[in-house]
Structures are given as structure tokens and as C-alpha cells.
Amino acid sequence: MSLGGFNALPNGVSNAITPWKVNIPQQDLDTLATLVKIAPLAPPTFENSLPGQNRRLGLPRDWLRAAKGYWETEFDWRKHEEHLNTFPHFKASIKDTLGNFDVHFVALFSKRKDAIPILFLHGWPGSFLEFLPLLHILRSKYSAEDLPYHLVVPSLPGYTFSSAPPLDQDFRADDAARIFDTLASVLGFESYMVQGGDVGGRVARIMAAQYPKCKIVHLNTHPMNPPADSDIRSAIDDVEKAALERHNFFLHNGTGYAWEHATRPSTIGFVLSSSPLALLAWIGEKFMDWTDDDPSLDVILESVTLYWLTGCASTSLWSYRQFYGPGADNHGSKKWYINKPFGYSWFPRELNPVPKAWIETTGNLVFFKRHDKGGHFAAMERPEDLCNDVEEFLQKVWHD
């Protein structure tokens, strides 16, 4: 299959980088099919049977029953796998203070000597899949000869095809940031930009604050506490006020999953690894609740299937205890203040749609774009908007 020349590694790349492709063993697919078929569905209850597919108390039973049936009879992983392999995949062997990590990443490499390296970082329950629509836009717009960027989408440690965190010590976003900065060096990048949302946004902020090779950063999520300055707290318009009301609803009605991840990750890890239907319920709810428009069932099942087949339901929960509970870190932390050029894309259905005035207290915000549509999975939901914002931000601030 032709990859359009986008798989040619840049000059100066370490031999620690090897080409790779997605190829799930058929035995694993057969086992998954059996488990989906025999998985029992909980009986009807008041909570899962609200009229009109109402989700205020959680996932509707009718939705899960229909999704289970579709997963059994119509969903075809091999078709999705074929699409995944139209993008170049690689693995990098990274030597780190915590041990050796195999870091999986998807990339579109340019043949231009002045190409700007960009790392795109996903979150939970996302993966590199989120950024494939954006990569498709750029590979359709440019050839490998004139692509202005090296585009790298790594899988976070513990997610999908990347190594899991070590068994003998804690793993934090700071560690992921260090590993990804090393990845940039292994790829031969003397400087780079980083973009991220959700967990990836937190890792991106740390990279911008702590690593000199990271020259600029762009985010699309920004969980933080209200600033201490009352004037800044009140400097919001009607659109931001409505967004904060939705955010407050999420804090009180939608964060139970995060507290479970943060305080009892071992237990929920066992639960999510015991049944593909349990994993579908846990993740499918988030894909529907956190988006502006419900994604297709194929989009949801592609992500859930990938999580199941790679066994990452339990290994991907490490970030939550750093960001929830007493003394939790957030984007307002002074230790992660961004002195470098900082860009932000604001989407109205984001889980943390904080006002621009608040974001400005956390770094040198030189680019801000507010959109009328889009939610938490911006790269998946609004790839053209995010792509255009990144290109506009780069044109404004990147200097050789």
C-alpha cells in the first residue's frame, strides 16, 4: 500500500525508530467476538430506562443493547485496520530514567528541510485515532515534497500500542512529557511545537514549561481553578458564562469516573478489563456526553475495540491521581506557567470551557480562537477548525 512518501524518515533520525503496522492476531479478534456475544446485559431499571434515551442517570439500556448487536454482527475491525494502515506507523525505542519504553506513533514526514515538527497529544478515552481526520486533511492538501510540517502523533505510555508504565513506581504526566521530549530528540528535531487536549494537553503544557526544544504550544482544553483576582474571575461574557454553567454541571454530575480513576484505578481497571461490554459502556458514555454531536457507532466501537485488543483499559489510568483530589495539579499551576508563545482553541462543548481571561493568567497567550461548534474531542469532531487554527498560530509565531 502506498503511503505517498510520508513514511520517509527525516535526516538525522536515530536507528531507534522502526516502521510498524497494525496487525491484530485473528485469535484475539475471535476471542473478542465470543466475549461480546456471551456478555450479559444488565436487566432493565428505572435508571437505564428513562424515556427518550435520556442519559442524565447514565447510559440507556436500549443503546447498549443495540450497540452490542451491531458489534456482534456488523462491525468489521479488519476494515478499520486497513484504514489505519494507510497512515505510516512507527515504534521508537526510548531509554528513560524509568526504563525502556517502546513508543508507538503515527506520522506524516515531510521531505522539506525547513519542515516544522509538531507533536499532537491525545487524552483518555482517546488515542492516536482522534488525529487521523486531521492528518487526512493535511495529506490531501499537501504532498510529502511540500508538506510544511513533520506531523507526529504518539500514543501515550500505557495507551494502545505504546509500552505500559513500570510496575514498581508511580508514573505521572511529567514522565510522559520527558519521554516525548526524548522522542523529539530521537527523531532529530532541534525544536518543535506541541499540541494537545485532555491528558495530552496537560503533558503538552509541561513540555512547553520545562523543555527548551519545545518552542510553542497550542491547547484545546484547560482545566483550572478560578483565578484569585476577583476582577479576572468576573471578566467574562455571556457565552463564557453559559459555558461555565455547563462546566459546573459536569463537575457535579459527570466527574464520578475521574474520581474512580484517581482513587481506585486498580479496581476499575479490573472491571473494565473483564468484559468488552463493560468497557463499551464506560467509554461509549463519554464519547456521547463529551461531544457536540453524538459520533457514529463505528467511531465509538473503533476506539473501544482498540482499547480492548491492546489491553490498555487498566494501563491508561495513571494520570488521574495527579489531577484530582487534595493538592491536585492543574493548568493554573505556577510551576507550569508558559513563557513561550501559547495558542488556544476554545470549543463550546469542551468539559472545561474556561474564559479567555482565566487562560491568560497561565501563560503568554498570543493566539485565541473561539468556535461555535465542537466538544472535548476537537481533533475528531472539528478537524478542519483545529487544523486551520494550528496553521494560523504557526504562521503568526514560528520563527526559525
Automatic annotation (TrEMBL):
Top-level lineage group: Eukaryota
Presence of keyword Hydrolase: yes
GO MF term set: epoxide hydrolase activity
Keyword annotations of the record: Hydrolase
Pfam families noted in UniProt: EHN (PF06441)
Residues of the active site: D198 (nucleophile), Y320 (proton donor), H376 (proton acceptor)
GO biological process, one term: epoxide metabolic process
Epoxide hydrolase N-terminal domain boundaries: 17-131
Record carries keyword Hydrolase: yes
Protein family: Belongs to the peptidase S33 family.
Name recorded for this polypeptide: Epoxide hydrolase N-terminal domain-containing protein
Organism the protein comes from: Cladophialophora yegresii CBS 114405
